[in-house]
Amino acid sequence: MKTALGAFQDAFVDALYQRAAPALQSVTVQAAFEVYRNTVFNSCVDALCDNFPTIERLVGTAWLRAAAAIHARETPPSDARLILYGEGFADFLEAFEPARELPYLGPVARLDRLWTEAFIAPAQALLELPSLAGMTTSDLAACHLAPRTCVRWSWFSGQPIYSIWRCNREALPIPEELPWRGEGALLVGHAEGVTWHALEAGGCAFLDACAAGNDLDRASALALAAQPDLDFHDLLGHLLGAGVFRPINVT
């Protein structure tokens, strides 16, 4: 059952975001409340610009702030930690009419969001190569490689989203002859920040399978089904080197 304080807090939030709050009408008509509302609203817009720097580089500050203002009014934050704000911003951009001729904005925003998730994820031990020494081929095939909580990946079908995102993140010019085809991305959070890597379709399928709890034998089969020409040994070495997996639990 909601307390009187809880009801007041909910009404106050409704009033801040210009939703109906009859119980606070005497408060909301005051000039000081409008100043406070504008401060909160501007903080939301600032947070979206901070959380989606690649989008800002692609479309400019003015365009992004205008879009962020609309999104902030429609979808205010549900958490006081504004670094988490923007979970639905990629969906918003994909449905945003002024962005209709920029179909890559939504997917690029998803990569910005994955970067944030990798950055704020809690620290977790990683699988060290020496720990695999002595394991037989059958042992390895039956083991489960679980991605760490600070690892994010995604496959973007039909668009070179990773190349667009990486060039803007690294302040590099986008190649004029950029092939317009699907790409994957891998992001790994570390104490020093986040590293990013290109990832093929088979690599994304492999990590999807690992995250779903499949053993190495099954996960590798799914990866090869998604990309028959995949060099699986090269992929596994790359993922291990990037610090993607948790230590294996030996029972």
From TrEMBL:
One of its GO terms (molecular function) is DNA binding. InterPro entries: DUF2063. Residues 8-93 form the Putative DNA-binding domain. Keywords: DNA-binding. This is DNA-binding domain-containing protein. The lineage of its organism: Bacteria, Pseudomonadati, Pseudomonadota, Gammaproteobacteria, Pseudomonadales.
